[in-house]
Design a protein that fits this description.
Elements (H helix, E strand, L loop, with lengths): L4 H13 L4 H7 L10 H13 L4 E6 L5 E5 H17 L7 E5 L4 H13 L2 E4 L6 H10 L2 E7 H4 L10 E5 L7 E2 L21 E6 L9 E5 L8 H7 L7 E3 L10 H4 L8 E4 L7 H10 L2
Parallel strand pairs: 1-11, 3-4, 3-5, 5-6, 6-7, 10-11
Antiparallel strand pairs: 1-2, 8-9
């Protein structure tokens, strides 16, 4: 455990204790303000994976009924390997990484690995058009792209010298994501992550004009999601589920929205589920 974890744990536990006492929570809650903080290293690895190594962190249910589970220890180890592999291919602190993945284990591994490296996530929907992709790569100054195979094929006409990594079937000119499994399970950071360093850059919905870039730091998003935890009433025994393909702004939230809790995620790889009740019933009946 690192010293920066205790203020985060204290804040989380305070909100859990006063879940039904809003007045006290409102009056006495204090936001943690660490000088340095890296959610993936200082909390996911140092606390969740260390204290609950065999607890299920993520379940992926495929459209054909296939059901795979991953523990906190497994995701910690796999994200270490991926971080080492990405580093070996030039991904480094501050580099912007465009991520176009669905409800698949690679989404969680990538999010954790990029955070560990101190690189900057640029989450995006897998439905983006060619013009959208050109815009994202150019305006976000993207240094690397990690995409599903069917999305990677759209990048043929997206110019740039960015690193290309594909998750799925091989695509010519792209590195294969699965090759990371040969990398070391021991990850050593190149230095501390400042709390106000950028963690991710969102593109807004662009309802009235071109999408704008909105930046979050290593505290504004991971620690900021303590309010989400309190608002929706998450507890350590809560089972959270996701029944849709991730859109750009929701992608990292799938990692952070149960902040600091050893809460399992149940994710459906299908892009459509007819109702929230159907999603919950499917998760519940599968264990």
């Amino acid at each position: 455990m690192t010293s920066v974890t205790e203020p985060f744990r204290t804040a989380r536990d305070f909100l859990l204790t006063h879940r039904t006492d809003y007045d006290t929570a409102y009056a006495q809650f204090e936001w943690p303000r660490p000088e340095c903080f890296n959610f993936a290293i200082d909390w996911f690895d140092a606390v969740l994976a260390a204290e609950h190594p065999e607890r299920v962190a993520l379940r992926i249910i495929e459209s054909d009924g296939t059901d795979a589970s991953y523990t906190f220890a497994e995701l910690s180890r796999r994200s270490n390997q991926l971080a080492n592999w990405l580093r070996s291919h030039g991904v480094k602190r501050g580099m912007r990484v465009l991520v176009l993945l669905g409800n698949q284990v690679e989404l969680w591994e990538t999010t954790l690995a990029v955070i560990k490296l101190g690189a900057v996530l640029v989450p995006a929907a897998t439905l983006l058009t060619l013009d959208d992709l050109r815009d994202r790569v150019t305006r976000a100054n993207v240094g690397a792209v990690i995409a599903r195979s069917e999305v990677a094929e759209r990048f043929v006409d997206v110019p740039g010298s960015y690193l290309r990594i594909v998750a799925g079937w091989p695509v010519e000119g792209w590195l294969t994501y699965g090759d990371f499994a040969e990398s070391s399970e021991l990850f050593i950071s190149d230095g501390p992550t400042k709390a106000d360093d950028p963690l991710l850059v969102y593109f807004t919905s662009g309802t009235t004009a071109l999408p704008k870039l909105a930046e979050h730091t290593h505290t504004s998003y991971p620690i900021g999601h303590l309010s989400t935890m309190y608002w929706i009433g998450l507890q350590p025994v809560t089972y959270t589920s996701m029944c849709r393909a991730p859109v750009g702004r929701s992608t990292p939230g799938r990692v952070f929205s149960p902040p600091g809790l050893p809460v399992p995620r149940c994710a459906f790889s299908t892009t459509y589920v007819s109702s929230p009740q159907e999603c919950w019933t499917s998760c519940a009946t599968r264990g």
